[in-house]
Design brief:
Layout (H helix, E strand, L loop, with lengths): L1 E5 L5 H6 L2 H6 L6 E2 L8 H5 L3 E7 L5 H12 L3 E5 L1 H4 L6 H7 L1 E5 L5 E7 L15 E5 L3 E4 L4 E8 L9 E11 L2 E6 L11 H14 L2
Parallel strand pairs: 1-2, 1-3, 3-4, 4-11
Antiparallel strand pairs: 5-8, 6-7, 6-9, 9-10, 10-11
């Protein structure tokens, strides 16, 4: 189930469309939804192996959050990238607990920066065989839960507000009950996925999260 909507600046339909052929080639029967009401449909969610969400900002009801969280904890996978998963439903703490992170800010514009794959997690199937790589896009500053498995990071250099570099999670996984959650902070624009490493880790993350 691909759930897409919210702020149009993240092109939720156009960018999720990039991954529909991949998911179908991997054997998924793909449905799309432009309403969060699907999260409150318990039968539908129980029959769903993977939810790919691209829904920036917006509001989610308590019933919808509970439905999503219950499904994930029962085994439905949950995955997404950038603001479509970590800048969603800013007022809902239960949703943020599900993802393990929340967007706080990004420096103005698009930046050139390096994504560092954590050597101690190099055997994880999402990043196995992928080395450090460079991107030109937004760099997210996030508040993250300590109970996430960080696979890759970025570094914010010293600036006028801080005299030291800050290492920030950029790609992580998380387990919630029987379910798996995959998050990548990269993916503001479609050509972010033209970077082979970004495309590869995103596709692998979707597969890893699936039931």
């Amino acid at each position: 189930m691909v759930v897409r909507g919210g702020w149009e600046g993240h092109a939720p339909i156009a960018i999720t469309d990039l991954f529909l052929p991949f998911l179908e080639d991997e054997g998924f029967t793909v449905e799309t939804a432009q309403s969060l009401d699907v999260y409150a449909d318990r039968d539908l969610m129980a029959a769903t192996d993977l939810v790919v969400q691209c829904w920036t900002m917006g509001e989610i009801s308590g019933e919808q959050t509970r439905g999503l969280a219950e499904a994930v904890r029962a085994g439905t996978g949950f995955a997404g990238w950038h603001g479509g998963i970590v800048d969603s439903f800013r007022g809902d703490v239960d949703y943020q607990f599900l993802t393990g992170g929340q967007f706080l800010m990004h420096p103005a514009g698009f930046l050139d920066y390096r994504v560092h794959v954590r050597p101690e997690r190099a055997d994880h199937p999402v990043i196995a065989g992928i080395g450090d790589f460079d991107v030109h896009t937004e760099q997210y500053w996030l508040a993250t839960d300590p109970d996430i498995d960080v696979l890759a990071t970025t570094t914010f250099p010293p600036d006028g507000e801080r005299a030291h570099p800050v290492v920030m999670p950029a790609v992580w996984t998380r387990r919630q009950g029987a379910g798996r959650v995959f998050v990548s902070a990269i993916g503001h624009k479609a050509d972010d996925f033209d970077v082979p490493e970004v495309r590869a880790l995103t596709e692998r993350g979707l597969l890893w999260a699936s039931r």
